[in-house]
Amino acid sequence: MMTEEANMTAEQTCFLIDGKRIDTGSLGVYDLIDPATEEKIASVPRGGRVEAEDAARLAAIGFREWSAVAPIERGRILRAAATRMRDEIEDAAWEITREQGKPLAQARAEWLGAADAFDWFAEEARRAYGRIIPSRAADMDWCVRKRPVGPVAAFTPWNFPAFTVAQKLAPALAAGCSVVLKPAEETPSAAWRICRSLLEVGLPPKALALIWGAPAEISAALVAAPQIAKITLTGSTRVGRLLASAAGERLKKTTMELGGHNPVIVARDADLGHAIQATAQWKFRNAGQVCISPTRFLVDRSLYPDFVHGVAQAAREIVVGKGTEPATQMGPMATAGQRDKVERLVEDAVQRGARIEAGGTRIGNCGYFFAPTVLADVTPQMQVMNEEPFGPLALVAPVDDLDEALEEANRLPYGLAAYAFTTCRETERRIAGSIEAGMLGINHFGLAVPETPFGGVHDSGMGSEGGIEGMDAYLTPFLISSRSPA
Predict the structure, then answer these.
(1) CA pair distance 358, 345, nearest whole angstrom
(2) Catalytic residue check, 404
(3) In a domain, 381, yes or no
(4) pLDDT tens digits, the chain, 486 residues: what are they?
(5) Does residue 455 form part of some domain?
(6) Exactly one of 51, 88, 257, 436 is catalytic; which is it?
(7) Which among 55, 114, 123, 59 has a CA at the least distance from the CA of 85?
(8) What is the DSSP letter of 412?
(9) Is residue 227 part of a domain?
(10) Catalytic pick from 124, 186, 291, 408?
C-alpha cells in the first residue's frame, strides 16, 4: 500500500545542487502527468542553462573532494545508499509506477536492481587495479595507475528511471568521479530519491547534482561546460548522434547506450513451447518500452504458424490496466507521443500487408493504453521493421533457413541485443559467430544485470555499462615511468 511519504514525494521532488533543495527552476515549473489517468501528479521545477552551468562549476570542486576519498570509503557510502534504497522499496515503486506506468511488481524489481548496482560497484571501487610493467632498464620502473576521468554529465531516460540512473551513478561514483545527473523530465522522482539517499549517507554535496527541465538547453550547456570531462547517455540514436558530435568537438569521452531493433531467431530445432512462453513473458514487459526488448521474431517456416498462434493467444490474455492495480500485467505507454507512434506504425504495417493476430488498437479513452499486439507476415518494406517501435509490438516473419534469418537480423544499422532459440550447439555457434550485436541471449531474454557488460555496436551506441567494463568507462590510465638517480 502507498505510504503517506510516497503520496507526498512528488510534491517534494526537486533539484539537488550543492546538497540544497531547489524547488523552482530558472524556467519555472511544469506538471508531472500520470500516464494511466492523464491527471496531474505534481508541479516540479523546470531548469535550463543556469542550473546546468552552476552544477558543472560545483562538480569540479566536488571532483577534487570525492576523488581524494579512499576507494574503500567510497564503497562504504555506496553500500549504505543501497541499503537505504531497499528500505524505501514500496514508496519508490509507487512513484515509478505513478510517473512511468509499469506494474508495481516490475517497479519493485527495477528498484532492487538499481540497489544491486550500487552494491556491485561498491566492491569494484576497491578493484580498480593498475599494473607493473617490466621495464627495459634495471634502474627504471614502469607503473600504470587508473585515475577517475573527471566530472561526468549523465543523461537518463524515462523507461527505467531508477536502473538507468544506477547504471551511471554507481560506477562513476565508485571510480571517484563527480556527477551532474539529468533524468527524464517525465520521471524525475526515482532519481531524486536515489540522489537523496547518497547525500544523506555521506556523499560530499558538491560531488552530485540533480537537475532537469529543458533537455536541449541543459545538454548543450553541460557538454560545453569546460569542467565536464565525460558525457554518458542512455537514449535514442538521434539524440546520441547530437551529443556525441558536440562532445567530439570538445574531445570529451562518451558512453552511449542508444536505440535498438532487436532480432529473435527461432531456429528449426528450437523448443517451440519454451520460445512461446519466454516471448509471452518478456515481450510485453514495461509495455515493450525496453531498449533490449525482443522485437523482430524471425521464425523458421516449419514453426511459424504455431509460434504466431501461441504468442497471439498469450498476448490476448495479458491483463492491461493501471500499474497500481494488483492484477495488472501491463500498464500504459509512458507518454501520449509514444502511444501515437505505435499506432502509426501498426497502421502502416497493415496497409502494407501485415496481419493483426492480437491487439492493434488503443484501449479506452483515458490514459496512454495500447493493446499487446502481434503482427504477422511483416516485411522489410514496413516502417515498423525499420524504425524502433519501443512499444508492445511483436513483429513476426517466416524465414526459410538460418542464413535468411541472419541476413535479416543484421540488415539494420542497429546492434544492441539479439536473441536466438535453438537446441543445437552448432546452430548456437553459427549465430554467435555471425550476429552483429553487443549482446546475445540464447534461449532466454534476461541480459541486464550489474555484473555483465551492457552496450551495443553500430547505431546502438559505444562503450558498455555494467560489469568491469562499466567501471573502466570512468577511469583513465596514468603511466608513471621512474628512473633511479645516477
Answers:
(1) 15
(2) no
(3) yes
(4) 444 444 545 558 999 999 999 999 999 999 999 999 999 999 999 999 999 999 999 999 999 999 999 999 999 999 999 999 999 999 999 999 999 999 999 999 999 999 999 999 999 999 999 999 999 999 999 999 999 999 999 999 999 999 999 999 999 999 999 999 999 999 999 999 999 999 999 999 999 999 999 999 999 999 999 999 999 999 999 999 999 999 999 999 999 999 999 999 999 999 999 999 999 999 999 999 999 999 999 999 999 999 999 999 999 999 999 999 999 999 999 999 999 999 999 999 999 999 999 999 999 989 999 999 999 999 999 999 999 999 999 999 999 999 999 999 999 999 999 999 999 999 999 999 999 999 999 999 988 899 999 999 999 999 999 999 999 999 999 999 999 887
(5) no
(6) 257
(7) 114
(8) S
(9) yes
(10) 291
Residues of the domain holding 387: 262-450
Closest by Cα among 92, 98, 110, 97 to 160: 110
- What residue type is 469 in one-letter code? E
Active site residue 177: no
Residues 347 and 235 in one domain: no
> Per-residue DSSP letters for 346-386?
HHHHHHTT-EEEE--SB-SSSSS-B--EEEES--TTSGGGT
Cα gap 71→215, rounded to integer Å: 33
